[in-house]
Here is the input.
Amino acid sequence: MATRLLPINFCLLFLTALLFMASCMNSAEASDEFVKASCKTTPYPALCYTSLSNYASSIKTSQRLLVKTALKVTLDAGRNTSSFLVKLSGNEKTRKSKTGPVGDCVELLRNVVDEISKSVKEMDRIKDNRDIRFRISNVQTWVSAAMTDENTCTEGMTGKTVSAKVKRMVTEKMEVLEEQTSNALCLVNSYASHH
Here is the structure.
């Protein structure tokens, strides 16, 4: 009798494991589809999806977590760009840039990192509907200010005081950061429109 139940128990165990795996896969697929659909609404959907898809399992289908993750990704890009500019401004060949456009960009990027960092912290404070509009408004203001600072840095590279090589390097780095920030702001605005 016990030997007859063994195959049945094994089948039940196998089916339970299979159902669990299917539900996990459906959840993972739903999370990935949520990120993909949300990114389609942004100005740079391919960059959005590429930068956020690795976090889909932690985002799940939460718009708040999507926004917070997009801001964290933007913050990382801002920190990387800021570090690049600090190194560039300390380079012997660009040392005169500390007071010129590259030096200005270093200061502007410090502001960007601060503004995006404040935005991430503000998203952490959104736990329920209390003060949600006020907090989202703060995030919109800071991310918009970050975009302005980024644009100011890029526009400052148009003068003749910076070599073509430095201009190109800074502009390429800034372009990616500006696109990340633009996507993040779009997702913030979408989140705001639902509250």
User: Anything to note?
Assistant: The mean pLDDT is 84. The first helix runs from residue 2 to 39.
